Amino acid sequence: MESAAPVVSLQAVGRAFGAVRALSDVTLSIAPGEVLGLVGHNGAGKSTLVNIVTGVLPPSEGQAIYAGGTPREAGVRVVAQELALAPNLTVAENLRIPQRDLRGLMWRGKARTRIRSALDEVFPDHGIGADTVVGDLPLAKRQMVEIAMAFAEGGPAPRLVILDEPTSSLDASRADQLLRHVHRFRECGGAVIFISHILHEVFAVATRVVVMRDGRVVDDRPAGGYTRTSLVEAMGHVAREGARERRIAASGVEVVSTPEGLRAGQGEIVGLAGLAGHGQAEALARLYLERTSDWRGRSPVPAAFVAGDRARDGVMPIWSIARNLSLAGLAMLRRAGFVDRAREARLVADWRERIGIRTDDTGRPILSLSGGNQQKVLFARALATGAPLIVMDDPMRGVDVGTKGDVYEMIRSEAAAGRTILWYSTEAEEMTLCDRVYVFRNGRIAAELRGEKITEERMLAASFDMGEAAA
């Protein structure tokens, strides 16, 4: 029996942006019933490859061939790393944007039916109304809506779904629901390109793994041909040993104390865990705003913030990399009431080197960077302020495994120097790096874990009201 024709086939594809070459000689095909895990560090060329497969960008060299003639006719759909929903429209109204067959007087009813069905199938018990305005939804539910839209029925039917960091804002239970749906979709003949820096998710769903580095495909083999270590090495980064060793808090001086019972000492890394949407982000926002709402600029600032939702809370999209990086520290760059541009340039150059931002010109627009490198700018912005308290709201969204290791080391180093870190993450594994973890449930602290009691099992138990397991 002959194998099915590929949904899309790339033949010697290259893509250049002026003198910058983002892709070089990429030959790749995706067949029905295949889940292609696409991995590589930030800036490896994954986003450019996705933009070519979806038809957003034409290749500079080579060609992309589709089973249906065009990406739309071939049933190619995408969930981008930076979500693209219209915040002023309802969930159902957003579905009409990609599904052009929703026309006529009765289109709203059809849209509601389609999106409800997709949400029910991918994320049971999702609690999202079809008539809810998207801007009123938390980030995790917005991501769930965009994922459901990609799998929703409607012409042409989905045949290849590209998922770019699809679980970056989802907690473990929602991520598991998505991975199970990917398996079902593949078993029904669908194809998926799955891009994630969470490697255990790649191994959980991929039938084949392609590794990219510097705009090229450097390895392509069945998923079973890799171990985690060999995959990280293929990406060009040697996995560190001993990164999870428990650290000792630097001081017993209390820096944070709230009526709800959240405490943090100087030099301590405190995690906020639990299922997404249970009050962690709100708790962080209150803590941060209480310390930074004074209209007078102070140096050093009392607290600095690292956003996970870059597009909404992080980057200034029309500003340069340098301006984005120096923004939070302008008070300490003042001289005679004006910003000292020479000091600003030194600050930017220092942090570009320290945190490894991949650019040779910080005067370029921030959006010229990959998502992971944009996130590095936000880390540098916060750390450069000298603030004694760093508040991090799920900051590792879309950050590759190598960069994560570097950032983990930097966080531990900053804490050892006396800074207090408050860290919310949807990844339970990251919370095991903390000195103390508060598990939130229904807007309240359900459990406090310390030391060796900080385990994924105990956090999950506390999240689901299984108190005896978390004790």
UniProtKB/TrEMBL annotation:
Residues 8-239, 238-467 form the ABC transporter domain. Keywords: ATP-binding, Nucleotide-binding, Repeat, Sugar transport, Transport. The keyword Transport applies. It comes from the Bacteria. One of its GO terms (molecular function) is ATP hydrolysis activity. SUPFAM superfamilies: P-loop containing nucleoside triphosphate hydrolases. InterPro entries: AAA+_ATPase, ABC_carbohydrate_import_ATPase, ABC_transporter-like_ATP-bd, ABC_transporter-like_CS, P-loop_NTPase. This is Sugar ABC transporter ATP-binding protein. It comes from Rubellimicrobium rubrum.
